[in-house]
# Entry
Amino acid sequence: MLAWPAPTIPHIPGNAPILEIHDTATDRLVNTAAADQANAPASMYVCGITPYDATHMGHAATYVAFDLLQRTWRDAGRAVNYVQNVTDIDDPLLERAAATGVDWVALAEEQTDLFRADMEALNVIPPQEYIGAVESISWLVPLVEKLVAKDLAYLVPGENGEPDGDIYFDSVAASNEAWKLGTVSGYDRETMLGFFSERGGDPQRPGKRDALDPLLWRVARIGEPRWHGASLGEGRPGWHIECSVIARRFLPAPFTVQGGGSDLIFPHHEFSAGHAAALDGKALAESYVHTGMVGLDGEKMSKSLGNLVLVSKLRAAGVEPVAIRTVLLGQHYRSDWFWTDELLAEGQNRVQRWRKRLPTTSLAEATAVISRIRAKLATDLNAPAALAVLDAYAAQEPDTLDGSESEGGILLSEALDALLGLKLG
Ligand code: ZN
# Structure
């Protein structure tokens, strides 16, 4: 599947400090580059959208946060291999298509197009591999068969007149040195059961070996889209195995960072890691990084409440994408926060103030500001502190003019683009 056009990223002189970032699995800051491989390529998988309500601010905040991670790695001289999926077949997508009378394929294509345009506008670097779940089906079928052959997956009989043949992952039998239930999330069983019910799991389904076992293959029901599943029969895959297989196909085992919103910690990232480890005995990723949730004016943002703030709507209303990105960077990526009109107005004002100050920036001043921004980003991508550095600089009287202002303004402008993805020019 095509991603979106890549921006040109300026190279900024000077040294970036080593990045430490919060890992959910260990709940501490980790250095994402071992001392002896500071220049080795970093690899990242970020779970993509299910294309039916793209691109709301929760999506935008997540992809901008991982874009910041990528930019910070690149600034430190590391190449980055980045993979993202699109969950272009899933229950919520089918439900939305049925409810609105739209063909599900057309809905997915239209929403994915919108997402691409929003990402390009927000200056987000595209993944090298952008993979649809549908594309992954033929790759994952033999791997689910392999799990069945190892008795790490099993068939559950149909219920209420539905067909036999759904395949579930045996989360207890699959435990090994690389993964067991809780390795990624650290949650206790009660918390896992709560999130499992809330987020698409089926703890009550009769015939499962453990209530938390997730679906690997859903055998075809009448009227539902289906794909060839070899010995599994016609059907479609569970969500976690898709990401697991896509990540393993294109990235090293383990890869550097698995990313997504905090609502993906369990069950999605827990079981994506479990499936991979059950197949090859290795951890899915070295670190698991999660972004906070974005609400609107004190409420959860959701389609059912009718309060989604969409990037495309703001853009259509004439809001500059760089102001939207400024609002997103103004909140720490791990915080839960609320989008408000006041935040947007403040973001727009900040952009104006920074722009106005750039032409009176000496080379020495630009160099000092860049160094302070790099230091803030190196500690768990502290973008709000980096923006505060910019505010302080913009509020300061310019140095005595020394003739380097044109060069200084250009250097800082390029650095804001390279490091923060803020294109002010
Ligand atoms: Zn995923």
Residues 317 and 323 are 13 Å apart (CA to CA). The first strand starts at residue 20 and ends at 23. The chain has a mean pLDDT of 95.
